[in-house]
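Hey L., structure's done. Input below.
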Amino acid sequence: MIEAVLFDLDATLLENDLDRFIRTYMRSLSLSLAQLMPPEEFIRYLWGATSKMAENVDPKVTNEDAFRDAFDELSPRPLAELEPAINRFYAHEFGKLIGCTRRKPAARSIVKTVVAQGRSVVVATNPVFPLTAIAQRMEWAGVADLPFSLVTAYENMHFTKPHGAYYQEIADLIGVPAERCLMVGDDLKLDRPATEIGMCFYWISDNGAGDAMQGSLEDLHALILNGFLD
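Output:
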């Protein structure tokens, strides 16, 4: 029996072309810091620090701390000096990126169904963003007020996708054995590695055939209503 369902966010609970979204995000954030650092330099340091963060496998170092350390190694200006402007960006500008996304009608209903069945639900998005950026995207998806047991973010996680340790950390945090968890996501490279630690995996996909269970979010919701998780 499945006791917990882990939902990816972008392109799973929220319609989001990540390539377009990341380009728009990078441009907007870098321009908001233009008085402090040339945009092209900031983007270079941001990408470099994000890559270093993704390589972190130290269970004592949060993704946030790994990012901060890497950024400070690369940049002549420490992240702490940029943070007030970054915080203002998330408070006042990040919300404008909603135009890159669309709400999925099935997202709220499937999460509510899983909760109503007495199971834990997790937003298992790649924790490379601060919680505020994830919380706002949850608002755009129409699920922010639902009772998630955990929302992964760079402040509270010590690994990123596709490390199996990321999925194991989720299982440990919510107190559910990995084999009783279902990971739901659209990206085989990032989300299917949940199976490496024994989780089940459902691939959100409308095209092609894979070696995993697959279908739309609506398809999965119909399965769950018919006892799929029992």
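Residues 19-98 form one domain. The chain has a mean pLDDT of 95.

-- N.
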